[in-house]
Design a protein that fits this description.
The complex is a heterodimer of chains A (341) and B (249). Chain A has 341 residues and is an all-alpha fold. Chain A has 16 helices and no strands. The chains are: A mainly alpha (341), B alpha/beta (249).
């Protein structure tokens, strides 16, 4: 693109380039407008929407470590589950306020994230997979054993979740649940948009691309990874807390292996390292799951698996090019706006 | 004259193999020094010892008179000892601006800032452009590194190292693999490095060494075979023997 900007002094051009990278796109704005707008429509689907927002938040959290920092994890449910149990136990013991519960869940998950981050600093991807898997299993078994606290295999009975901001009670349709979950997702994404364009965010991408060189230009790699892992744990803790609060229940299911595996699938489907990939993936994954399971209730996993194999074999880039072309035909105005950026 | 970089009796052995054998170097500030030697002479091990990737079995490493032997890689960079790599070690997804800004932000102590955009505080961008300009990289600074031609990547390799403002810069075969047409640009960039930076060139290519270096150490089997000016080394029959045996030069 040769345009007027090429006549600017380089410092100015560099500044504009970096500002442009961080600018809101029309697609982004449109997405949030539609997402919040949905609160007024399709009331019977709001519980599903809330679930999608929670899964999206969980996937966004995995994206911080996998997509940005390059840490693979098969045990991200550890933080999700800890968040869920934190608000669950608080709510059962008389502290049902959602927002303070959410904060507490983020904190406990963050503390666990901080201490376990030291285990994933070193080693290959395989080592990291095994360690994260192990940590999640440990937590699962601990929750199972401590049945006086967690209810064990029966789950946590008797959670009383109060109204959000002391005003909005959770309703049967899930409208409050949806708006609440979506708002948390929105605030987290707002925050992460800042983080990924900061020196810290760039350092994470550098570490993912080439940890050897990152260190050789003075980046304290371990310190950055610890911070990223802790941050991701906090966000996963939020997601788990939202699930427990909106469903009024927490059981061992929140710590199961399939949670960690599903969220990885979601991120792979939506694309990692782009913040919105987790959200897109969650939407596709849950709708596909919903649509396929109405057609063939027993074998929906077969088709999800099939879709995943095609996605990986065909390559995301190729599918995206096709997708762009379709969008370009259908909505030329939007496509032009995007291209102009 | 103070020494920018000094090693005293540096040793490294892997089991029975002595990879670095009693290497003592003394490089004054602003020196243009070359480290040469046939394959397997221990050049890579020596770089790894200097930069902190490996811990020496015995001996000392001093940067501006300060013992840095126990410091980690990034701490040494912070004190002013930076290296480049023989095979490009860059960040394929980052642009040249972002790559150099990383080094500048880190040096200014803003590398951990997560609450503001890159380059919105301090003179980060001015410094980034100054470095990119020096290596003639501003034209394509908004492209991801993976799309830059090899020669440009080679320049970026040096640029990002220089952006850490090193006192001592270790250049590991800067022109390695560069096609003939782009070679001159790299050599000129190396020759134009700031005068106050001490440069250690680890090189196979004798043309480059003789053109650039003021002094040379010849490494053979982990030990310094001889040291001297370019003329002395050129005339040294032992050096010739080492290299003739290799079929180089």
């Amino acid at each position: 693109m040769t345009d007027i900007t090429s006549s600017l002094p380089p410092v100015e051009r560099a500044g504009r380039f970096l500002a442009g990278e961080a600018r809101w796109s029309w697609l982004e704005i449109g997405f949030w407008v539609v997402a919040f707008g949905l609160a007024f429509f399709f009331r019977s689907n709001h519980l599903l929407f809330a679930e999608i927002a929670i899964l999206a938040l969980f996937a966004v959290s995995l994206d911080i470590i996998l997509g940005y920092a390059g840490i693979v994890s098969l045990g991200h449910a550890a933080f999700f589950g800890l968040g869920a149990y934190t608000v669950g136990i608080m709510a059962r013991n008389g502290w049902g306020d959602p927002l303070t519960g959410l904060a507490a869940a983020g904190m406990t998950a963050g503390i666990l994230g901080f201490f376990t981050s030291f285990l994933v600093l070193r080693g290959s991807d395989l080592t990291r997979l095994m360690i994260t898997l192990g940590v999640a299993s440990l937590l699962h078994e601990t929750a199972n054993k401590l049945d006086w606290l967690t209810g064990g295999a029966d789950g946590l009975q008797g959670m009383v979740v109060g109204p959000v901001l002391g005003h909005f009670s959770f309703d049967l349709y899930g409208t409050t649940a949806y708006v609440y979950a979506l708002s948390v997702l929105f605030v987290v994404v707002l925050g992460l948009r800042v983080v990924v364009h900061s020196p810290f965010g760039h350092a994470l991408r550098a570490i993912r691309d080439n940890p050897l060189r990152a260190r050789a230009i003075g980046i304290p790699v371990n310190r950055r990874l610890i911070a990223a892992y802790t941050l991701a744990a906090v966000v996963a803790g939020f997601a788990g807390a939202l699930l427990a609060q909106t469903s009024g229940f927490a059981s061992l299911d929140v710590l199961e292996f399939h949670r960690s595996a599903d969220v990885m699938l979601v991120l792979v489907i939506g694309g990692s390292g782009r913040l919105y990939g987790g959200i897109l993936g969650a939407i596709l994954f849950r709708f596909a799951q919903d649509a396929i399971s109405t057609i063939t209730p027993q074998y929906w996993q077969f088709w999800i698996g099939m879709g995943l194999v095609i996605l990986v074999l065909a390559g995301r880039d190729r599918l995206e090019t096709v997708g762009r072309r379709i969008v370009g035909r259908a909505l030329p105005w939007l496509a032009n706006k995007e291209a102009a950026r | 004259m103070t020494l920018a970089l000094e090693t005293r009796g540096l040793m490294k052995s892997f089991g029975g193999l002595i990879a670095t054998n009693d290497v003592s170097l003394q490089l004054p500030k602003g020196a243009r020094h070359a480290l040469i030697g046939p394959n397997g002479a221990g050049k890579t091990t020596l770089i790894n010892l200097l930069t902190g990737v490996l811990t020496p079995t015995s001996g000392e490493i001093l940067l501006d008179g300060r013992d840095i032997g126990s410091l980690g890689v990034e701490q040494r960079v912070g004190l002013g000892l930076t290296r480049t790599f023989q095979i490009n070690q860059l960040f394929p997804d980052l642009t040249a601006i972002e790559t150099v800004a990383l080094a500048v932000s880190e040096r200014q102590g803003r590398g951990g800032d997560w609450w503001r955009r890159v380059g919105t505080k301090g003179k980060v961008l001015d410094e980034v452009i100054e470095v990119l300009d020096r290596f003639d990289l501003t034209d394509r600074m908004t492209e991801q590194t993976r799309y830059l031609p090899y020669g440009k990547q080679r320049l970026l390799e040096i640029a990002v190292a220089l952006a850490t403002k090193p006192r001592v810069l270790l250049l590991d075969e800067p022109a390695a693999g560069v096609p003939e047409g782009e070679r001159e640009e790299i050599l000129a960039a190396v020759a134009d490095l700031p005068k106050d930076v001490t440069v250690v060139l680890i090189e196979h290519d004798m043309d480059l060494v003789f053109r650039f270096a003021e002094s040379i150490s010849v490494l053979v089997a982990g030990a310094v075979l001889t040291e001297g000016t370019v003329e002395e080394i050129k005339a040294d029959p032992r050096v010739k023997a080492v290299y003739l045996g290799e079929g180089d030069v």
